[in-house]
Description:
single chain; alpha/beta; Rossmann fold; 2 domains; 4-stranded mixed β-sheet; 10 strands; Lactate utilization protein B
Amino acid sequence: MSGDERTTPPGPGPAFVGMPAFPEAARKAVGDATLRANLRHATHTIRDKRARAVAELDDWAALREAGKRIKDETLRHLDTYLLRLEEAVTAAGGTVHWAEDAAEANRIVTGLVRATGEREVVKVKSMATQETGLNEHLEAEGIAAYETDLAELIVQLGRDRPSHILVPAIHRNRGEIRDIFLEEMGSWGRPAPEGLADSPAELAEAARLHLREKFLRAKVGISGANFMVAETGTLVVVESEGNGRMCLTLPETLISVVGIEKVVPTWRDLEVFLQTLPRSSTAERMNPYTSMWTGTTDDDGPRSFHLVLLDNGRTTALADEVGRQALRCIRCSACLNVCPVYERAGGHAYGSVYPGPIGAILTPQLRGTASGVDASLPYASSLCGACYEVCPVAIDIPEVLVHLRGKVAERGGHRLERAAVKASAWVLDHPGVLAAGERLASRTRALHPRRAPGPGIRRWTESRDLPEMPAEPFRDWWRKNHT
């Protein structure tokens, strides 16, 4: 393929918007034996390695608490730190853009790319641009966006959707990846070598050769960032392959789209996260590649740098005193790897770029609970608490899940449910009525059904035994024996 040729990368699979609610999507996923085997093998391997890496640090609990405090301090004064960041980025030669929502962010990025005269961009993995649907927007505008992270490349070539925060192609095994490379690489670049095997080394080499021409040709790079340092205007990306370094240094124009919650106050704060993030994500002591850039320089790197600060529901989440702790997330994915629900259902069932436990609390806050899929996410959990135990910034995910369930119920539960709650509240406010009801229930206990009637309630009691009714109410027993 010559350097002047341009092709359009394959489009993604079905969009998350309009997907079925979690129970329906999860039921289908659980029936996929290959998917479950892929997920079980990958998540168990990662979480076992993480446990060993974390055990090496005697002060892990202190680091976890420090990360929590840094994030909470930043969120409490987010306006101050964002303005400080803007000043520092501008002073270093960069340009800051503010995007209220996904549509505005996509318009800004598209305008910046068009201004360069280019029709293609290379991307380092960015969940913020997945959140906004940037690739699809650019494609509609005639601009090709090429993912360069290996897992993201697999997802893009397979016309798929990411299913994990750290390993987007975790639902694919090596044989499936080889088939995707052989069938799709040649349609928009250098084809995979004939006779490609499914060994990790050969698959990685095929991806390296395929991407190399795009790295060397691209004039525009698009990135996200793991952290932004308000003190200096520095952005930080941590990754394992080196593709990020290529995207961040070779293009003439660099555009970074970053959620406003990714800011940290000072350089010193990075020390904590550069210890906890790699151990929690890839189970490494440190990331193979930690790239940092501050504005522009005449001698090296991009000549033009643009930072797009994305809100897209984050200030709404910030206003919720319980829910805002979700904004502490550093996208390590440790919670996904220990979650029994994610392990069986996979990431696609969540209908969001943010799957797993963190997605179950973050997505409903960013998108609201108007749709069926978003309203169902707070219930996509057994509340076992494993996610909280491994979170490196101590997000109490079970607490937020219960909090959001309450919001969903308040927003408009089933009419029968609302009537039952209202009636129960009235009975509890009238002790005489409650006592009479208890006595009546005890005297008629022989007539009580073992399963509750009605289609909705019956389904709930099919897997649960109703408690046995005692021969007399507790209040009557107490009066006879203690008065």
